[in-house]
Amino acid sequence: xxxxxxxxxxxxxxxxxxxxxxxxxxxxxxxxxxxxxxxxxxxxxxxxxxxxxxxxxxxxxxxxxxxxxxxxxxxxxxxxxxxxxxxxxxxx
Length: 92
Hints:
Blueprint: H1 3-26, H2 40-84
């Protein structure tokens, strides 16, 4: 075994009983409490609604910007065709 593997094995075997002892001392019987906040479902619905509204606003803003870019591109194509006939490849 390499020195690193031997060191890791030693550390693991040393800490395992310590971790087990700590777990035994800290163990308590856990019984989940019933949901007592009646507003919790409302908060979930409001949170999801807010997220979906933000997504919708983002999509609409991207759509509007894309429409503006498309209109500007058409206008530039008209200007190029009007000045030099049909658009050609850029000069090198």
